[in-house]
Amino acid sequence: xxxxxxxxxxxxxxxxxxxxxxxxxxxxxxxxxxxxxxxxxxxxxxxxxxxxxxxxxxxxxxxxxx
Length: 66
Description:
The protein has a single domain, classed as 2-Layer Sandwich (Alpha-Beta Plaits). Helices cover 36% and strands 33% of the residues. The chain contains three helices and three strands; from the N terminus they run H-E-H-E-E-H. A three-stranded antiparallel sheet has the order 1-3-2. A hairpin with a 5-residue loop joins strand 2 (41-46) and strand 3 (52-59). The mean pLDDT is 86. Residues 13-66 form the Acylphosphatase-like domain. InterPro entries: Acylphosphatase (IPR020456), Acylphosphatase-like_dom (IPR001792), Acylphosphatase-like_dom_sf (IPR036046). GO terms for molecular function: acylphosphatase activity. Belongs to the acylphosphatase family.
């Protein structure tokens, strides 16, 4: 295992908020489904301000793919 392989497995956490035309397009479900497929833990929800907010935690390489 090389240095890059080890760095990809470091546990990281990311808070995010998505702005723009995100309501009604299925982005929340898309985000949740991709996180589940990658083994990333966390949450995602529609906010009252019309954005999508979330937090994800997982291997650095997997979070980077999101």
